[in-house]
Amino acid sequence: MNRSFALGAVQLIVLLACVLSLPAFSQNPPAAESVRSHFASINQKVLDMAKDFPEDEYRYRLKPEMRTFGEVIIHIASGNFYAAQAGRGEKVSWTELDPKNYKTKTAIVLLLKKSIQEADTTLKNLPDSSFAQTVDPWLDVTEHSAEHYGLLVAYYRANGLIPPASRPKK
């Protein structure tokens, strides 16, 4: 066999392998699916914590100058409402909900659920194609909630508790 023919055959096989593998690389989830999935995932983790954390510890602060556990949940809900409004194209600025209006665990959990529902409704109503132009505000708010999720883990640990997502699966 001619050496240049063999090299040409090898190059052709490598090229063919590359071309045939392209569909595998393009099977990443579309941006819309990814944004919706990550947003739902972090909100579910925070909601699980809000429901699980003892009500008598909702006023617990890691340090005096920090938010209480309940105030962190309210802050996350504020972000969800912001995302819902911005996602609908409304001119909006971040409006921090006043923790004084949410005095009990039940009220705070209901607020968080409402914020998640409003944001999810907005997300579901956006056409998938809109995520090709921008993933704002969803990426920012998801990252923001994830940062506060980490803080909430510290509240759990400081109280000798195991966060729901860290517990052994049954």
Main attributes of the structure:
mainly alpha, Four Helix Bundle (Hemerythrin (Met), subunit A), 0% strand, globular
Describe the structure.
The protein has 170 residues and is mainly alpha-helical. It has a single domain, classed as Four Helix Bundle (Hemerythrin (Met), subunit A). Helices cover 65% and strands 0% of the residues. The protein is built from 6 helices and no strands. The chain has helices at residues 3-25, 31-52, 69-87, 105-125, 130-133, 138-158. Helix 2 (31-52) packs antiparallel against helix 4 (105-125), helix 2 (31-52) packs parallel to helix 6 and helix 3 runs antiparallel to helix 6. It is globular and about 45 Å long.
CATH topology: Four Helix Bundle (Hemerythrin (Met), subunit A)
Domains (count): 1
Order of helices and strands: HHHHHH
Q: Please work out how many helical segments DSSP would assign.
A: 6
Q: Termini distance?
A: 62 Å
Q: What Rg is obtained from the alpha carbons, in whole angstroms? A: 23 Å
Average the pLDDT over all residues and give the rounded result. 87
The largest sheet, given as strand count, sense and whether it forms a barrel, is: none
- CATH 4th-level superfamily: dinb family like domain
- The overall strand count is 0
Structural class: mainly alpha
- CATH class descriptor name: Mainly Alpha
| CATH architecture assignment | Up-down Bundle
Query: Any idea what the shape is?
Result: globular
Instruction: Give the percentage of residues in beta strands.
Output: under 5%
Helix fraction bin: 55-70%
Tell me the quaternary state: single chain
Low-confidence stretches: 14-19, 21-28
